[in-house]
Each structure stands twice: as C-alpha cells, then as structure tokens.
C-alpha cells in the first residue's frame, strides 16, 4: 500500500486533504492540492511528458493545481499543465487534458463537463483509519 511519488520535491498539500492508496503523484513539475481535496485510489496526476513532434523526444514539465474541495475519482488521470477548479469533480476513469472550471463535474476520455456541483461545500476530508 502507499502512494507513488516521482520526485522528492514539488508537492504541496492543503489542510485536511487526502491522497488515497495506490495513487501516483508525478511531482517533477510541481503539484499543489488545496484544502479538503480528495484524490481517490489509483488516480494519477502527471506533470511531465514528451513532445511527440520533437525529433529528440524532448521532455517538458508543467505543474498541476487542484482547488479547494475538489474530488478526483478512482483511476482518473490528470495531464500536465491542468488546473482543477475549486469544488470540481473528476469522475472515475476520466482523462483530463484541459483545465476544469470551478464546480464543474467532468467525465470521459477526454474529460468533458457533464454537470455542476453544489457551490456551498462545508465538509472536511479528515478520514479515520478503518483498520489498525
């Protein structure tokens, strides 16, 4: 069990946020998670890739920011340079290639808006351990 980090730098996590088991955080380009963010199991946030048109397969890094109260679903993939807005929801299995507006719900491959979320969010994502 655990979370995989691709670098030992570039990761900021806000108060009461949680990254669940088997998630992958590619922190080479920097990841910032706001407050009360939930990153579900096996979700992946990528911050580095390659230019497919480069004759030398040149790499690049672009950070990812996730706003307060955002929820990233099981097996979702967030691509480099994306911002997930406050309160936004990324459905399970979605591949996010463009930034998501605050309180939008996105799903699919590539992810597209499918709904809106309540804007009056007051919860805390403090989880208790189920087993000890």
Automatic annotation (TrEMBL):
<dbReference type="InterPro" id="IPR001451">
    <property type="entry name" value="Hexapep"/>
</dbReference>
<dbReference type="InterPro" id="IPR011004">
    <property type="entry name" value="Trimer_LpxA-like_sf"/>
</dbReference>
<keyword id="KW-0012">Acyltransferase</keyword>
<keyword id="KW-0677">Repeat</keyword>
<dbReference type="InterPro" id="IPR051159">
    <property type="entry name" value="Hexapeptide_acetyltransf"/>
</dbReference>
<dbReference type="Pfam" id="PF14602">
    <property type="entry name" value="Hexapep_2"/>
</dbReference>
<keyword id="KW-0808">Transferase</keyword>
<protein>
    <submittedName>
        <fullName>Acyltransferase</fullName>
    </submittedName>
</protein>
<dbReference type="GO" id="GO:0005829">
    <property type="term" value="C:cytosol"/>
</dbReference>
<dbReference type="InterPro" id="IPR018357">
    <property type="entry name" value="Hexapep_transf_CS"/>
</dbReference>
<dbReference type="GO" id="GO:0008374">
    <property type="term" value="F:O-acyltransferase activity"/>
</dbReference>
<comment type="similarity">
    <text>Belongs to the transferase hexapeptide repeat family.</text>
</comment>
